[in-house]
Fold:
Amino acid sequence: MPTVIQKGNTFYAKKGSYFEGNVKIDGDFVVPPHTHFWGRLFVTGNLELGPRSSVALDIACSNAVIGSQSRVKGPIIASGDVVILDHAMVHSVKAGGRVILRTGVSVGDVTSQDTIIVHGRIKSGNLIGKNMKVLGN
Structure:
């Protein structure tokens, strides 16, 4: 298994790591660019998935930031906020908080208990939330 470094309640993966099987992190998880998960990713805290990273199945976490050009082939389920950065591809999102979708994102259905904010053009399925804001083109 690749090296995960712990500093306080935050865990850090090494850049370019490959994780086989399911991964569970009890705390916050900072994932650098080009890191790949071949199973499920369960994080009890906040997740920061670096640019050009991938997750083969689903993600469960408190809050998530999905880096640009990343790919998540399963749903993201978060109790809080989810931010999906430019040109990322995500199967679907179910969030207890806000969802922010940046330019070029490709996502399936998005369900939010709060506001969905769309910056620029995206490709998506159904967008269901309390409020909807579209900024830019």
